[in-house]
Specification:
The protein has about 170 residues and is mainly α. The protein has seven helices and no strands. Helices cover about 75% and strands about 0% of the residues.
Length: about 170
């Protein structure tokens, strides 16, 4: 079957944006967040346009992108909520400006995304070392690998941290 005529991002938007907004509003429970994610979905469509066999294929493609964006949205909210809860006990003058808080939340999101890109054992070794303060010997026992392998895992994680730091270098205000 030939691709549907007019499956450009513009025609997809005109044909399916209302449906997608309703789909996202039901998932998110918020019309404003749904509107933001509709726009984000179509930005992704413009970056990776496709051809479709039917209208249901178009909706399936849009729903797949939108579901991924919902997951990102929920993860971002979880991180933001956790950070705000950790700051709740601090005096107001130590909490920073709204711009600084937004930068911190964005940086936390980037760090979380970087950690998710790491292989599971590398991520686990890194978290055990950095958050739990475990020495290499105990991490090796926990993961069932040699200390040498733990060093390799951590070197890989630190390389990713350095790359992330280089990416964010221009974004952070001290």
């Amino acid at each position: 079957m030939p691709p549907m005529p007019g499956s450009s991002p513009q025609s997809l938007y005109l044909s399916h944006s209302r449906w997608l907004h309703g789909f996202l509003q039901r998932r998110l429970g918020n019309a404003f967040d749904a509107a933001d994610l509709v726009q984000d979905t179509f930005v992704r469509v413009m970056l990776r346009p496709g051809t479709f066999e039917s209208s249901s294929g178009e909706r399936s493609y849009l729903a797949t992108i939108a579901r991924g964006l919902c997951i990102d949205h929920w993860r971002r909210r979880q991180l933001e909520t956790a950070w705000l809860e950790s700051q709740a006990g601090r005096p107001e003058h130590l909490q920073g400006s709204p711009e600084q808080r937004a930068l911190i939340v964005e940086t936390l999101h980037e760090v979380d995304a970087m950690l998710l890109r790491l292989p599971a054992r590398v991520r686990q070794a890194f978290l055990l070392a950095q958050l739990d303060g475990m020495p290499y010997r105990l991490i090796a026992v926990e993961l069932g690998v040699s200390e040498r392998m733990v060093k390799k895992y951590l070197a890989q994680a630190f390389l990713h941290c350095a790359l992330l730091e280089a990416e964010l270098d221009g974004l952070l205000i001290e």
